[in-house]
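Posting here for the record, re: flavin-adenine dinucleotide.
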Amino acid sequence: MESDFDVVIIGAGVVGLAIGASISDNQRTLIIEKNSNFGLESSSHNSEVIHAGIYYPINSNKHLFCLEGNKLLYEWCNRYQIKHKRVGKIVNAINQGDLNNLEHAWHLASESGARVRRLTLNELNEYRKNIAIEDGFFSEDTGILDSVSFLKSLEYFAKQNETFFSYNTIPINIQKNKNNFKIQIKNYDSSEDEITANLIINAAGHGAPEIAALIGYKIDGDDPNVPILRQHVNRGVYFDIINNKINHSINNLVYPVPINREKMQDHINTSGGLGIHLTKTLDGDLKLGPDAEWLNNDDEMDYINNGKKAQQFYIAGKSILPKLNIEDIVPAHVGYRSRLQTKNNQYADFLIWQDKQYIHLGGIESPGLTASLAIAKKIKNLL
Ligand SMILES: Cc1cc2nc3c(=O)[nH]c(=O)nc-3n(C[C@H](O)[C@H](O)[C@H](O)COP(=O)(O)OP(=O)(O)OC[C@H]3O[C@@H](n4cnc5c(N)ncnc54)[C@H](O)[C@@H]3O)c2cc1C
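Prediction output follows.
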């Protein structure tokens, strides 16, 4: 008997939506989402940066999907009139430690395939009027976008292709049959239904390991045929800058120099992020963050910024913006990264793992928003 759907995608974040929009032209697709709408988790709690791909180990998934995703995302934004701006990013060295690491960061960036250039003395002098900078380089293809409009456009295209969406729904039991899956779902009103699908794509973000376990996969690497699927959660907090003089004094993103090339991935693995930086919004304002803090198992993802980190953000912000005062910052949003567990603390890359009729997307943290269309293209090719 024919299955109800060719493909069931679990999770309507940017990755699930991008895959849905891409495959649904010739696959009967259903997207199941536990929240009442799309994109309410990581996909709407991030920096809205279109990354260029300059920080990742060469040829890693993060590097390659970011590079391709960057081009696809600009094309998409232009084609469907999604607000965006190619503002560029300054990687700025402020102190001796940064200067020591700058050459390594520059080398990695220039090998990445993204367009980067060293800042000239004239540019440095111009920037010095507003930010602390001794030396640095510029990433041309870094930009910002209206991520909500992007998500909406993906949902729209998936719906145009007659993709079904089931919001407020979770799978509670998944049975793997010889030729398909039987999925028992629970709806918002606690009613239950049963559907069948030829293929499951797990794009559930933080919930991805749980879904894999529901199907029967061991998530800790105990089965040699299954990669480690467990993820850890890292919290990133933002503060907005509300002093318009400062907001309008700089038009680019400003990031610290990552620590040196050999140690950089270890650093990102241990700390969880790149260090507090300055991001521009499409309104022209600036925000500081995100910082990085690992959650304990019993910590909730409450998305609340209680403002307790104001002093820490002020100090970090002042080191980049000498004119900043503590009254210039207010608590803003919070996001949660889903970092894949690795053996011996190796580099945590994006995981795209296929086991016959099951595709698992694991550890899709930054630059997942940028990479989403490239990931979707890859999945379409896998089908
Ligand atoms: C602080 C922070 C800053 C970031 N900044 C950037 C940036 O500037 N640029 C960039 O490119 N990337 C950035 N990222 C990364 C980017 O936001 C993510 O990679 C991307 O949003 C991941 O999308 P997703 O669809 O995999 O996950 P999500 O958006 O989390 O979507 C997963 C969906 O699955 C649903 N789900 C979970 N469990 C179940 C279940 N059991 N049943 C049904 N549905 C379920 C969830 O409700 C959710 O809607 C950032 C991330 C963070 C945390």
